Amino acid sequence: MRLQESGEMYLETILILSQKKSFVRAIDVGEYMGFSKPSVSRAIGLLRNGGFVEVGEGGGLMLTDAGREVAEKIYERHRYLTKILIDMGVDEDTAADDACRMEHVISDATFTAIKKYFHYE
Predict the structure, then answer these.
(1) 15 with 63: CB under 8 angstroms?
(2) Which CATH number is 73-117 given?
(3) Cα(15)–Cα(32) distance, rounded to whole angstroms?
(4) Which of 55, 70, 85, 100 allows an S-S link to 90, with CB 3.0 to 4.6 Å?
């Protein structure tokens, strides 16, 4: 299943939240992303059906191995691209916003080349 940008964003958000707290709920994801409960519920349902997320007892969200792989890939891109843009003189907020858009469209080959060029490997 090929994820759209929004699905990748949800997985990345679940990863980030799970690094901050042991129990992540759909409401936490909605608050973090600024989305309504119905939007989050629909997205989580799609990610669950796609095998990227599991919902445990009490409604806790957990990434599957496939979900974690996608989330970590996107989050790594976000961190590296943000750092590169800041190092180039872009202010932190703009760098983070631009990195967020770039992380979803850049190819694996280009991202690897960027990391190598900027010595982030």
Answers:
(1) yes
(2) 1.10.60
(3) 12
(4) 85
